[in-house]
Specification:
InterPro entries: DUF6931. With about 80 residues, the chain is mainly α. The protein contains 4 helices and no strands.
């Protein structure tokens, strides 16, 4: 399966230095071959997807707070289920 074509074109327009861009790159690597449809399949190292997803989470945490620790706390609080009464 190729992740090329339109997916590759959209990925090229992303700012890969942002949480959204890192998430897009992680999804791209998880989608099969990195090469365009008209070229032989080239598959990324399976570890790359989770590593880049981890980077996206860290970048998001850093953006959410004054310090990375505050950002991580904020991110974790957002992930907590809301109590219902």
């Amino acid at each position: 399966m190729h992740a090329g074509g339109e997916f590759l074109n959209r990925l090229k327009r992303q700012d890969l230095n942002s949480p959204t861009g890192a998430m897009a790159l992680s999804l791209f690597w998880a989608s099969g071959s990195m090469s365009p449809d008209d070229l032989p399949a080239v598959y990324p190292d399976p570890k790359l997807t989770l590593q880049m997803l981890g980077c996206a989470i860290v970048m998001l945490a850093v953006e959410l707070g004054e310090t990375p620790v505050e950002g991580a706390r904020s991110l974790m609080m957002r992930c907590q289920p809301k109590e219902t009464f």
